[in-house]
Amino acid sequence: MMDPRRITMKRGAFSGQMILVNVGESYAYVNGQRTDEVSAIRCDVVLPAYGYEHLYVKLPLDAAVDPGLVGKAVDFAGFNARVYSIDGRLGYAAAADAVTVAKA
User: Fold this and answer.
1) Rounded to whole angstroms, how far apart are CA atoms 29 and 7?
2) pTM across the whole model
3) Pick from 32, 43, 52, 95: CA 20 to 30 A from residue 22's CA?
4) Cβ pair 67, 21 in contact under 8 A
């Protein structure tokens, strides 16, 4: 059986809009413990096509995120997601290079 953690997905795997609802910081973890080191920018988006499920997309620290994008449909350059499992529950981890307003 294929290990689902080896599956990666591009933006097309998540159909429909992604609406940016929050921008914050993502912290580094060492041996399962959170540190005080900020490791990335964390964009919280909702997916209307999936019952407004949340997806967190990490961006590099040097990525410029316009605060005016909150509440708008966005797209991500260099988007890549993978499946992960914690205690038998599956989730998605996503990263991208940049966030921009979605084209109409």
Assistant:
1) 23
2) 0.83
3) 32
4) no
